[in-house]
């Protein structure tokens, strides 16, 4: 795939320069796996440039060929078989470098040379003239026979194969015919008879058809590009148009281009410069590779060669690729491997093994959608273009005039031959694949079409579909072009961008029956598909008759005759699906790794032991530490416990770590160290013991689209416990939502959600109830109602943990408090113990004035540590902390002049709270309560 | 005591949601919208040939309308084709990725986890229900499109746009395979959305994040210079199921590749999602 891509990219890059495209088209299929860079640095191959003097030009000018010898870099005494590599028209030996290096690496001595008339070689292009180009190749065989490193079959007879494509392919065949010393031939995309290649006639091959003008023009363009002055000297009367062409060849071609029909001389010359006349003398085993995307030398050319060689019993294999002069083969690697196998069998191992090294017939199936490499199939024998052997049989599919065609088959050749229909642009098959070709091909008035009925079953056509047409013309000679399309709705596509040109000569007005062989190739005809035979009077790549003419073309035969196989072609799909294997292996490895890591983690998991001694203690928090990813130490070494029957208040300013602790108690946050045990069971995320815990943390959370009642049921279902354990009625009584219970939760107020949240936490009467700010959003009556609920809940032997900011509320509700500050527990104990203390005396003061002065006096008394005056709406109070017995404190106060009306020992929880936090925050140094409050008001810095 | 957060419980939590109702409503409306849109076509522009779908596939050269309205079989395939471009991916991202962040955004996630439901169990239930919803949507769409198509365009067998037809007997199992393939090929985007979702409290981030991955992957897929590397992109083989409908024989290679890649990506991102959620501190 990558290579095909590269080839396509290369084509795209050079598409701008006409000459380059033509060169590339000619050298198209000879793309080899070894990259030029690798070739240049290959250590096992040595190369040397030589100049080979060969026969002089007719005018007497001496000619030397530019060649490079590649040989395996081993001792000079070792003998190797040899290969002569010939390039395509317009190319040079440079095109052959990577292939030559590869073959030398296989153990061959390789001569890659530039043919006469091209590149750095001298002389003119004689178009594979037996007297010049073929003689040159024989000269190279002579040369090989003299080399000490070349294996000889007999003195003067080296063991040698000839390999070439296009221009070099014909040369390979003709050299094998001319020189019996050649042991094997690989001939790619080349001609059998140059006359039928340039003047093809799909009805009567012996009669010259229309001139393949576009391709001929490309030949001329490429030799002009090769350097005009090198060959003929204009001063000596040579035609400057001809560049390095032989003047005779050039003159005849130019004449044909002007008239559109060949002279007898040209036909004779073209035929002489072809393998066809001399094939009878070929004895060397031959591999023929021909492309199906080749509007220059189609499969019919290779077929003619194959039939001749097969008739004389030469070992022969035929290979149809999907490449050719118009596009690179998508199976270039496999094609190259076949060529190497052929050389290995018949040249290197000459005669030591029998049987073909490759299947007698290999063919590329049509490229399927999204495929980048076509599938190859094989048959045990070459069936030819018309089938009849090897399982390829004729099937006839009925044809009828296409519904879209008008004019009853009457078509017009426009005066001057313009506009011409476009089926293919030589050398650019890839371009036409993206154009709406059918509308460019089927020009109105100049075309008629016949459609098949839908295929009843799938066929794979191998060869040339045939159709019989009746032709009646106003001219003596009628020229038209026939092509095969697949109907696609109102349009059609052309699987093989080729046309079959037809020329019929008959008296005007008479009806002639013409059997037309459509372009050969492989076609996949799916069941249900229908196909169209398109007849046009013009084609842009041919020289169209300039005289206006009206033809009537109608069907003569039964239908479209298809040499086809119904069997699904057995494919040689040896290529492993590396992508599937790779991804499947990755999946397997991944699953293995996941299983392994899961097992490993299970074993490694720090196992917090069950504490049998704590099974009756609802909650034990032991040395909890949590530092968040951002470095904030939210909780540092927190330990406390809650017993049955207690209502524990968790107090602390914002950022004290209350919520983080609460989340760790519920397994929502994983502590860095420390443990939480509920009823002796360690708490981890989703631990089963959490079923004994009900919680409301940082506000309630409900599915907004469900009603309050449904939410409670949905929550209880998620626990997976039986419905009767839930105690919905009790919980709903706590929520006290009344009729709102059946409205969607998204319509609830904050307080309603809060009450529903508390009800949810109490579902199933858990042993331990965590309520984070439960009074948030509740109004005073609701708060007051909540108090006895929590107290009676704890009174039943369960435990309630409440975190709150409302100190008065905590003081009234809770039996115990835990005060946290800055991630630490600063104090804990019963509420009664905290508010009551021996060193503190609280005085209720009367309304007499002068208590400020009295307080100052008291402060100066011995044993008095501090005196606070508090003005409240309910009255004036003073809190005195002293190291004296209470009776002496009272006496000192009265002595100081305070207007004492009552004495007590209980402080408000707020004072305790501020006091312990003050001492926690600032162990030494006195702190006034106002500055402390200001500091606590600030958000604790992270 | 049954398992916490059973699949049925989780299904009840998700099915009542408005987004679920909207999605299925859109799926049911879609074929009717197509019928309405095709009814507006006067058919007068037939000469233009009209392009066909963007992939230049077998439909090129014939008009989309003619193909889609030639029978219920073609109509069904058309419905799958157009929704397979993006809609199904959005659905997968939504159904697989949104449940966890949705619970987080409602604050109910923490109550589920303290119910208690283990984190693995929670994710497993949400994924099973999410992917089952995708599967149901994938079955509902073609079945409904078939019914609508039969009503308006008759029950003709499938005509391949490239020529030929596929009889109902063959088409039925191929459509079943196509639906299965579509399901497998949307697994990765669901998994990516899931992975993003367990790390966030915003459902939009999960769905949007996965779609951005998908769109970037689609952009990279158009860069030819990447060559074979593009095969590894999620969504590269999204259209491979059309191979089932291109002729009498089926080329399985692209579907095989696509399914394997999809499974690989799904496993990777699901595993990452489980890992992420298992280690996460639930702060929502």
Task: Describe what this molecule looks like in 3D.
The complex is a heterodimer of chains A (942) and B (284). Chain A contains 26 helices and 39 strands. Chain A is of the alpha+beta class. Chain A has five domains: 2-193 and 274-379, Rossmann fold (3-Layer(aba) Sandwich); 393-565, Jelly Rolls (Sandwich); 579-605; 612-832, P-loop containing nucleotide triphosphate hydrolases (Rossmann fold); 837-937, Alpha-Beta Plaits, CATH 3.30.70.100. In chain A, strands 1-2-4-3-7-8-9-10-11-12 form a ten-stranded mixed β-sheet, sandwiched between helices. In chain A, strands 13, 15, 16, 18, 19, 20, 22, 23 and 25 form a nine-stranded antiparallel β-sheet that branches. Chain A has a six-stranded mixed β-sheet with strand order 31-32-33-28-34-35, with helices on both faces. In chain A, α5 crosses α6 (167-178). The radius of gyration of chain A is 51 Å and the shape is elongated. The two termini of chain A are 59 Å apart. Mean pLDDT of chain A is 83; it is low at 1-41 and 226-237. Chain B is mainly α. Chain B has one domain. In chain B, 65% of the residues lie in helices and 1% in strands. Chain B is built from eleven helices and two strands. Chain B has helices spanning 7-15, 18-39, 64-68, 72-85, 87-97, 99-105, 109-113, 119-153, 168-197, 203-221, 253-279, and strands at residues 158-159, 165-166. In chain B, strands 1-2 form a two-stranded antiparallel ribbon. In chain B, a hairpin with a 5-residue loop joins β1 (158-159) and β2 (165-166). Chain B is globular. In chain B, 51% of the residues are buried. At the A-B interface, β18, β19, α15 and α17 of A face α1, α7, α8, β2 and α11 of B.
């Amino acid at each position: 795939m990558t290579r095909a891509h590269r080839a396509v990219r290369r084509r795209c890059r050079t598409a701008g320069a006409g000459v380059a495209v033509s060169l590339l088209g000619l050298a198209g299929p000879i793309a080899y796996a070894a990259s030029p860079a690798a070739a240049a640095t290959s250590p096992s191959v040595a190369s040397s440039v030589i100049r080979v003097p060969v026969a002089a030009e007719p005018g007497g000018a001496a000619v030397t060929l530019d060649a490079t010898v590649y040989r395996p870099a081993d001792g000079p005494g070792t003998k190797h078989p040899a290969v002569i590599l010939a390039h395509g028209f317009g190319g040079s030996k440079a095109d052959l470098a990577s292939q030559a290096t590869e073959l030398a690496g296989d153990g061959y001595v390789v001569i890659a040379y530039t043919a006469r008339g091209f590149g750095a070689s001298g002389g003119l292009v004689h178009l594979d003239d037996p007297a010049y180009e073929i003689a040159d190749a024989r000269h190279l065989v002579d040369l090989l026979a003299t080399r000490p490193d070349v294996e000889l079959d007999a003195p003067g007879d080296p063991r040698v194969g000839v390999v070439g494509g296009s221009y070099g392919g014909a040369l390979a065949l003709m050299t094998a015919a001319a020189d019996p010393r050649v042991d094997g031939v690989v001939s790619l995309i080349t001609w059998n008879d140059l006359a039928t290649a340039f003047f093809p006639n799909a009805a009567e091959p012996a009669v010259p058809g229309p001139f393949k003008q576009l391709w001929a023009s490309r030949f001329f363009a490429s030799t002009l590009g090769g350097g005009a002055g090198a060959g003929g000297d204009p001063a000596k009367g040579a035609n400057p148009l001809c560049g390095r062409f032989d003047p005779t060849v050039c003159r005849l071609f130019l004449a044909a281009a002007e008239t559109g029909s060949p002279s007898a001389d040209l036909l004779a010359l073209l035929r002489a410069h072809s393998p066809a006349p001399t094939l009878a003398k070929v004895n060397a085993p031959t591999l023929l590779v021909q492309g199906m995307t080749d509007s220059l030398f189609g499969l019919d050319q290779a077929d003619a060669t194959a039939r001749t060689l097969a008739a004389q019993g030469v070992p022969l294999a035929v290979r149809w690729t999907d490449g050719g002069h118009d596009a690179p083969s998508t199976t270039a690697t496999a094609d190259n491997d076949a060529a190497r196998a052929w050389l290995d069998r018949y040249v290197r191992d000459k005669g030591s093994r029998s049987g073909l090294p490759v299947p007698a017939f290999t063919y590329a199936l049509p490229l399927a959608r999204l495929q980048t490499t076509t599938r190859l199939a094989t048959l045990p024998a070459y069936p030819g273009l018309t089938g009849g052997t090897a399982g390829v049989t004729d099937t006839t599919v009925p044809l009828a005039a296409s519904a879209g065609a008008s004019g009853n088959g009457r078509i017009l050749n426009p005066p001057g031959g313009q506009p011409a229909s476009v089926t293919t642009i030589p050398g650019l098959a890839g371009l036409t694949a993206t154009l709406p070709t059918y509308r460019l091909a089927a020009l109105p008035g100049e075309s008629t079409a016949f459609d098949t009925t839908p295929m009843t079953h799938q066929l794979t056509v191998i060869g040339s579909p045939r159709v019989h047409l009746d032709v009646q013309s106003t001219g003596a000679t009628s020229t038209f072009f026939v092509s095969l399309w697949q109907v696609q709705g109102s349009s059609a596509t052309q699987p093989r961008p080729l046309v079959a040109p037809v020329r019929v000569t008959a008296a005007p007005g008479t009806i002639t029956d013409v059997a037309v062989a459509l372009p050969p190739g492989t076609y996949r005809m799916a069941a249900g598909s229908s196909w169209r035979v398109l007849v046009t009077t013009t084609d842009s790549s041919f020289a169209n008759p300039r005289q206006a003419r009206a033809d009537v073309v109608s069907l003569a035969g039964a239908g479209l005759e298809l040499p086809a196989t119904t069997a699904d072609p057995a494919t040689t799909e040896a290529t492993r699906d590396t992508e599937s294997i790779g991804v499947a292996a990755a999946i397997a490895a991944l699953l293995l790794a996941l299983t392994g890591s899961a097992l490993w983690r299970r074993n490694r998991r720090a196992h917090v032991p069950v504490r049998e001694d704590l099974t009756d203690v609802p909650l034990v928090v032991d040395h909890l530490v949590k530092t968040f990813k951002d470095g904030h130490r939210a909780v540092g070494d927190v330990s406390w416990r809650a017993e049955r029957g207690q209502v524990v208040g968790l107090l602390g300013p914002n950022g004290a770590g209350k919520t983080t602790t609460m989340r760790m108690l519920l397994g929502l946050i994983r502590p860095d160290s420390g443990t939480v045990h509920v009823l002796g069971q360690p708490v981890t995320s989703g631990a089963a013991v959490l079923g004994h815990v009900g919680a409301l943390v940082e506000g309630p959370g409900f599915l907004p689209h469900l009603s309050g009642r449904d939410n409670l049921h949905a929550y209880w279902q998620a626990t997976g416990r039986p419905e009767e354990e839930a105690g919905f009625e009790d919980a709903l009584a706590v929520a006290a939502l009344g009729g709102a219970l059946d409205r969607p939760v998204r319509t609830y107020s904050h307080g309603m959600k809060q009450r529903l949240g508390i009800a949810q936490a109490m579902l199933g009467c858990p042993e331990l109830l965590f309520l984070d700010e439960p009074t948030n959003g509740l109004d005073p009556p609701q708060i007051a109602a909540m108090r006895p609920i929590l107290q009676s809940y704890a009174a039943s032997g369960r435990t309630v943990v409440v975190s709150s900011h409302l100190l008065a509320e905590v003081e009234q509700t809770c039996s115990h408090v835990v005060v946290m500050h800055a991630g630490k527990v600063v104090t804990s104990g019963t509420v009664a113990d905290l508010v009551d203390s021996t060193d503190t005396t609280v005085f209720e003061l009367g309304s007499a004035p002068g208590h400020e002065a009295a307080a100052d006096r008291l402060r100066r008394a011995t044993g008095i540590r501090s005196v606070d005056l508090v003005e409240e709406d309910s009255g004036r109070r003073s809190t005195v902390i002293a190291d004296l017995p209470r009776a002496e404190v009272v006496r000192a106060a009265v002595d100081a002049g305070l207007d004492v009306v009552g004495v007590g020992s209980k402080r408000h929880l707020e004072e305790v709270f501020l006091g312990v936090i003050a001492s926690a925050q600032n162990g030494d140094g006195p702190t006034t309560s106002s500055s402390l409050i200001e500091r606590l008001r600030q958000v604790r810095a992270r | 005591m049954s398992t916490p957060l059973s699949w049925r419980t989780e299904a009840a939590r998700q099915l009542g949601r408005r987004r679920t109702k909207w999605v299925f409503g859109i799926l049911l409306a879609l074929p009717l919208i197509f019928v309405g849109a095709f009814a507006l076509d006067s058919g007068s522009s037939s000469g233009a040939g009209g392009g066909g779908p963007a992939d230049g596939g077998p439909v090129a050269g014939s008009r989309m309308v003619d193909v889609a309205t030639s029978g219920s079989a073609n109509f069904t395939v058309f419905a799958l084709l157009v929704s397979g471009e993006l809609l199904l991916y959005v659905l997968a991202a939504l159904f697989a990725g949104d449940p966890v962040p949705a619970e987080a955004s409602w604050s109910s996630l923490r109550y589920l986890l303290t119910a208690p439901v283990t984190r693995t169990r929670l994710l497993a239930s949400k994924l099973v229900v999410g992917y089952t919803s995708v599967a149901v949507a994938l079955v509902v769409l073609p079945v409904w499109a078939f019914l609508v198509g039969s009503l308006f365009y008759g029950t003709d067998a499938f005509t391949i746009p490239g020529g030929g037809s596929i009889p109902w007997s063959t088409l039925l199992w191929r459509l079943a395979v196509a639906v299965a393939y579509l399901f497998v090929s949307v697994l990765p985007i669901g998994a990516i959305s899931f992975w993003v979702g367990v790390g966030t409290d915003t459902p939009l981030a999960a769905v949007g994040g996965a779609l951005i991955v998908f769109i970037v992957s689609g952009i990279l897929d158009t860069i030819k210079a990447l060559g074979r590397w593009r095969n590894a992109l999620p969504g590269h083989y999204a259209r491979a199921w059309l191979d089932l409908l291109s002729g009498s024989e089926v080329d399985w290679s692209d579907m095989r590749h696509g399914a394997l890649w999809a499974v690989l990506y799904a496993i990777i991102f699901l595993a990452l999602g489980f890992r992420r959620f298992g280690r996460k501190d639930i702060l929502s």
